[in-house]
Amino acid sequence: MTISEFPKTFPRLETERLILREIRLDDRYGIFGNFSDEEVAKWFFDVPYSAIEQADEIIQSFINEFKEGKGLTWAMTLKESNEFVGTCGYGEVEIGACGEIGFDLAKEHWGKGLMSEALSAIIDFGFDMLGLSKVEARTYSTNSRAIRLLRRLGFQLEDVRGDSHYFALIEKDRKNPEFSDSSSARKPIP
Ligand SMILES: CC(C)(COP(=O)(O)OP(=O)(O)OC[C@H]1O[C@@H](n2cnc3c(N)ncnc32)[C@H](O)[C@@H]1OP(=O)(O)O)[C@@H](O)C(=O)NCCC(=O)NCCS
Description:
190 residues; globular
């Protein structure tokens, strides 16, 4: 079913290891943890966060974007422990047309396939429920982890401009990444 309209209530999504839910003001410590970490923050800001109030501000902007029908940013929490690990979402979305994704994950959780799992879910949501025909992503050309992740999900490079790579995914190219790891979250069901 395609609803092709901006959701009235924030959509909660579930993957094998994650709950993707609406961001709340009490996510401030998790958000601050990520954006005060130089290795995460350098892809978004000139200077990492140094005050917890900066987390409050960005949370409020995510909440406002949803209220205004402009964007959807999910908090990612681990099912097992309820721990906040990052965010992912459509910073900008045009229902029935195109959405641009953004994402960040706490460093201690890199290399486990968690962001691939989360992005697969929000991309499915974008195509299936928001009627998108294209999902876009821009990343710094030096952000090799993000580029690897986008390619694994089926994104194609559309342009290289300045210091950035511009990727896009159309529905026919979307992939659910497979991993060789025996603990893979996406092993085929026998
Ligand atoms: C970009 C970012 C989200 C990527 O995180 P990540 O953990 O590497 O991404 P994935 O969830 O796709 O994990 C894939 C890795 O987990 C490994 N992995 C291990 N166990 C796995 C499992 N059970 N299931 C899936 N993958 C697993 C994969 O082999 C892969 O490793 P590789 O990239 O070395 O080949 C993270 O580096 C980040 O938050 N960076 C800072 C913010 C940022 O750059 N945002 C993007 C701005 S455009």
